[in-house]
Design brief:
Two copies of one chain form a homodimer. Chain A is 27% helix and 26% strand. Chain A is of the alpha+beta class. In chain A, 64% of the residues are buried. At the A-B interface, helix 6, strand 21, strand 22, strand 23 and helix 14 of A face helix 6, strand 21, strand 22, strand 23 and helix 14 of B.
Chain lengths: 758, 758
């Protein structure tokens, strides 16, 4: 059950690009053709003279400090002194229509002086490489980003670390040590709806409609950039047609606002099918992992070295690096460990947050390596996982909450469902992997208002954006449950910074937990006031009054909410306003949860072509408490299918900083036909979440395990120790051929087909 | 200073008719040509077949109980069994454009069977007159309308009474008794912006944009009519281009919503320049007053009999009648009094609330009679007023607050300013009158939210509508004052029932007082929480923390609001949500105030033509505390100029139920050239208001005194005992001629020109 379904499937929902804004004109962006160059001159005279052109924005029109970014204020609204990636905005045109704006873009003469490009992490960290950002100003956007550790005068904008025990000692003490290197390419988040912004200066403030996941942080950025109080920046977030992190934080909003300011007219900026590839990617990662184990598969020590390619601007890169450091070890006990993650600038499209936030990249390494180790030891990967996985209540990471669900139980359930150990025909194999990540953010801020109307119906005011995840349903459910008011009588006030209270973000699988708690608190605040009002009205002590289930009771007295409101306000009028704050109080500990899942795949690999068919896929995720099972399953299924794309075919291909497949003609995401024939999401409820009724978020977990589960199954099917994504036919065929050659030449001993492969 | 001035004068403000609503189609209304008729048949087949017509609404499309109204649910969305005034909606068309809708209206065949019309109060109360409404269902909209007293099986829908002492005994004991009859015609409220509504059904609810003063009561009506919870009815009130009461409560909204429901498309209904005359008028009144006085001018007894012509539907008529009963005696002590007010249905355009709510009509009687009595006794009208007027602290009406300002001081000031007692050339005269009314409503409900943002700026969420009165400025000022945040950093969330909390009404001069108090309470609630947050952050007792003036202090500690918010939420994020409720608690007494003013006019009357020129006009009003002097003066001046129109030339002329001058070609309101050469509004601050800082509302008071002040001046100038409005040249010329004839024939003794006339 989701309340916005009809709205969406009938086409009644209006997304940002659909909004009618009178006198709005079209904006188009001039983008850099160079991966790295000095911008010598921007001459817009010919463009400005074109009839129909209202304004041309250049670096000369920017506010004094025109830089923004999530970790660092490193990204200019349009390029100032230099460009750092192909597709970087250099100028923008506002004109009466899009063709005119496009034509004007062609008339803008930009003189560039090319600089050496840094197309790879290797090039960027090589000694003597040009430094892309000489100075780095932390954005200070959120408190938990305070731990930025750039390596000065390099392109390493952040070095994240996780250390426990003594990794060198651990490796020395291990029975066996293996080292593997795992590669994950950049991929495109590609929501169905392109990023769209309408910016409209009104009076002495600005109104922005944006397909954003973060209306409040965007408002904070715009306020700072344009010297406005927050109260004069209004960011409205219509329903978003998929975000996946790509629409997190400021993206096009500063440019649209600057252009609208110059134009003196509202402007509408909608990315086309190529530009969405020039906005944000998911970090490519190179993970080298040295693992020391006992012969029985028990982990003793692990040392990770991870490089994340964050492109030309850091965006959330440093936070992704922190998450990789935190999540690298997976849900496995490891007495000695060290994780070093380097977030590196290159001259490519910026990489930022995408569903899973580094989790999928590092899980590819960790969960593949569990299987590699098992293979090498001749053990069942299921058994190796059983042996190492943390149990409920066990400390997972220092300072983080202890494990809040039953990973082992979930593992067994996934194994059961995929038929682990049962016979399989040749060419097929099964794989298992944990999806392990923290969710919700260590610090979290959500605020909410619940209004109980004079007729007993209610409205929730929340800054959470409906990005397809079902926020607009779940928050109403919580109010309905708390007040005992039918769901159809509870509505949601749409996200609008002028009208609803602050929310930090619609990301990090946090909405049900963090906003859910704020809404819950607000609903309970309503009930507390209803009790007080009834006590006043009836002249009884408030302690004797109960409220809930749609009514108020004291002794033999009964009244509906509507009657109590009328009694309190002296007429059938008024309303009760409840507020809820979720915040991290001074000294309060980490508020995150463990977003746990297990993926299990059965694949069939065509020995001739290397084509992988995922015959069955099972995802077991813990929702803590599934307030809305349909939504949990929908999120989990969507995440798993998205993960299949990353496992099987998605990769952005760059050549010297130039993106080769940056269009919807050349890059595809999973289609309905890519969904496995047998596809099952099993949502379990272990009740340990910090959210309402023990709920957790489940928005991202389902993606994490997919690639390694499929990769593990591919190894089981083929014997090929795949370490690089995606598992395209071509890639796999090459690896199968190489392995066959090695086996023939005796380089690798072909292991006996183990019993656990079925 | 008003913050929306630039927005308005540059044309940037968007009114309801300007709003872009995609796919909205045009609505036009078919109206009755008969003042009273049975509707036999409505055949829309030809209209429905016209290309471009999307829907035709008839009585068959209405919800089961299709009646609405402020006092009674007596008005159908479109006529059901009969029509009761010329212009009553009978059907409506939604079509692709207005010309098509108009053409379709012409094709709707309505068969009427005419019934006897009741064009006057006399006809309506005559024995055997047909009863226009056989049954009357009280709307119960607000608690204080509970005292409805219809006279069964008559056209008197309400009989309001005020009694003190024993009026017959008082009249018997008086030295002299006079009886006079005063006539006030119906006038048109005529705001610049016509009434406009856009209705849009979305999902299982409806969104309505309306040029309304009452978004919340309209939502309540729509919820009831269409069987929706309040939370699914969203009424948005864009800036309103003048309301004056005409846009109070539901007007066109039910029709637009019903039509949109049938059309399955948003519809836009905008009244044209004739239709605005068919929506609402101000009650015509006939007041007969018998007054008993002592020879020194002291009032002993007064008996009022007032008939209000409320037209075909009661609208606010009964409440206007209650106000007439309450206000009739003016601010004068009268030991024995009885006021009977009859609100009478006729077959004319409904009459409802307009600026002053019965106050202007009855003040014409009361304040003119004070002068008539003074003339008859040979006394100075100023002295007669001095002798009778209540003083501060004195009981004015039982159960109401005592007098909360200094009427005598205001009277003297107005007299001084108009030059009372100074010589005047022939043909000129001066007049004084009290403007006396209660304001704010005896019961009142406003709720508000104030949000303190993470940067220390603030947003007010209020349901008060900006109708030109300056609500959007004053509410921000109150927050700015309370928090000590610069005014430019305080913004206002626009009225939208989905987004801002409940407000009862933008009327009754109540916004600064009632919403002002709610906003003040919300701002103080913010400060209280800021103190708590700071105490928690600093680890000090909350009692030691002070907040205000933009900062928070405890001992030597200092922090900005922004710092405290960041401290409380653990990052530079979050916000503090303050709420304020203004309500009438169980058992709580009357919350109104006295909206007092004095008008003083100097006129010159052309003896040849009867043309009255208002040479000087002075209005002295008590604002209690003028939070914004410009706004107070603006309201007072606007009210006075509107009152001049009613004094000098405005009147709706009916003939047998047909309005003869119902268009902007035939009916005019005051222009800039009608403003007196010397025109002064003096706002005094007697500090006795119940609003913030002692404030009162001043929106209506200025209109009440105008007509009698001018009428009194006209009598002083001409000796003519004018009792009927308006004082057009033609009317006055006739009266002057009649008086001259009477004087010649000795019927009337020409009084000596008294000394106080100057």
């Amino acid at each position: 059950m989701r309340l916005d379904a009809e709205h969406k499937v009938t086409g009644a929902a209006r997304f940002t690009a659909d909004l009618p804004v009178p006198e709005a004109i079209a904006a188009r962006v001039v983008r850099s053709p160079y991966p790295h160059a000095r911008v010598v001159r921007v001459d817009v005279s010919r463009a400005a003279a074109l009839p129909g052109v209202v304004a041309v924005l250049t670096r000369d029109d920017l506010p004094p400090a025109p830089y923004f970014g999530v970790a660092y204020r490193d990204q200019p609204i349009v390029a100032t002194d230099r460009v750092r990636f192909v597709g970087e905005p250099v100028s923008a045109v506002a004109a009466v229509d899009t063709p005119t704006a496009d034509a004007a873009c062609q008339l803008i003469d930009v003189e560039y002086r090319p600089l050496p490009d840094l197309p790879t992490v290797e090039a960027a960290i090589a000694p003597g490489a040009p430094v892309l950002h000489e100075t780095l100003e932390p954005s200070g956007l959120f408190g938990d980003l305070g731990n930025l550790s750039p390596v000065p005068q390099t392109n390493i904008c952040h070095h994240a670390q996780f250390v426990q025990g003594d990794v060198e000692q651990g490796l020395a003490e291990a029975d066996l040590v293996f080292e593997d290197r795992f590669l994950v390419p950049a991929v495109a988040p590609l929501p169905l709806e392109p990023h769209a912004v309408v910016a409209h200066w009104m009076g002495d403030g600005v109104v922005v409609w944006s397909s954003t996941q973060h209306p409040f942080p965007v408002a904070q950025d715009l306020a700072r950039l344009f010297g406005l109080p927050l109260s004069r920046v209004r960011v409205i977030a219509p329903p978003v047609g998929g975000g996946f992190g790509m629409k997190a934080y400021s993206k096009l909003e500063p440019l649209a606002v600057a252009l609208a300011r110059k134009a003196g007219r509202p402007v509408r900026l909608i990315l086309d099918g190529e530009e969405v590839f020039q906005l944000l990617t998911r970090h490519a990662a190179v993970c080298t992992v040295k693992v020391g184990v006992r012969r029985d598969g028990t982990l003793v020590a692990r040392r990770y070295t991870v490089y994340l390619d964050t492109g030309a601007y850091a965006d959330t890169g440093p936070r992704v690096a922190n998450k990789v450091a935190l999540r690298a070890l997976g849900p496995y006990r490891t007495p000695h460990a060290r994780v070093d993650v380097y977030c590196v600038y290159t001259t490519k499209v910026p990489a930022g947050s995408m569903r899973g936030f580094g989790g999928p990249q590092v899980a590819w390494a960790t969960e593949r390596q569990m299987d590699l180790v098992a293979h090498r030891l001749g053990l069942d990967p299921l058994e190796v996982r059983r042996r190492n996985v943390v149990r409920r209540g066990e400390v997972v990471r220092p300072g983080k909450p202890p494990m809040d669900c039953e990973p082992l139980e979930m593992l067994e359930r996934a194994a059961d469902l995929i038929g682990w150990g049962k016979p399989l025909p040749r060419g097929r194999g099964r794989g298992l992997a944990f999806g392990f990540k923290d969710g919700g953010g260590s610090r979290t801020v959500s605020t909410a208002v619940v209004r109980l109307h004079a007729d007993g119906s209610a409205t929730v005011s929340s800054g959470s954006v409906e990005i397809g995840q079902g926020a607009s349903t779940i928050l109403r459910q919580i109010v309905s449950l708390e007040l005992g008011v039918p769901l159809q009588q509870v509505t949601l006030s749409p996200p609008d910074t002028a009208a609803v209270p602050y929310d930090q973000a619609t990301s990090m699988s946090r909405t049900t937990v963090s906003m859910g708690l704020a809404v819950l608190e607000a609903a309970r605040d309503v009930l507390a006031q209803v009790r007080e009002f009834a006590a006043e009205w009836w002249g009884v002590p408030v302690e004797t009054v109960e409220a809930g289930g749609g009514e108020v009771r004291a002794g033999a007295r009964r009244a509906t909410y509507a009657e109590v409101v009328a009694g309190a306000f002296g007429m059938p009028a008024g309303e009760v306003i409840g507020r809820g704050y979720v915040r991290t109080r001074p000294g309060e500990h980490d508020r995150s949860f463990w977003e746990m899942g297990v993926g299990a795949a059965e694949v069939e690999v065509d020995p001739e072509t290397g084509a992988v068919r995922v015959v069955r896929y099972v995802s077991v995720v813990d929702a803590g408490k599934a307030i809305n099972r349909d939504l949990c399953e929908g999120q989990d299924e969507g995440a798993a299918v998205q993960g299949l794309g990353h496992a099987l075919f998605e990769a952005l291909r760059f050549e010297g900083g130039h993106l080769l497949n940056g269009s919807l003609l050349e890059y595809r995401v999973p289609l309905a036909e890519d969904v496995p024939e047998e596809f099952r999401s099993e949502v379990v409820e272990h009740g340990g979440g910090p959210g309402p009724y023990g709920a957790k978020g489940v928005a991202e977990g389902g993606i994490v395990a997919v690639a390694p589960a499929v990769g593990n199954a591919v190894q089981a099917a083929t014997g090929v120790a795949v370490t690089e994504l995606p598992l395209t036919p071509e890639n796999l065929w090459r690896m199968m051929r190489a392995r066959a050659a090695q086996t023939r030449h005796g380089t690798v001993e072909a292991p006996p087909r183990p019993q656990w492969c079925g």
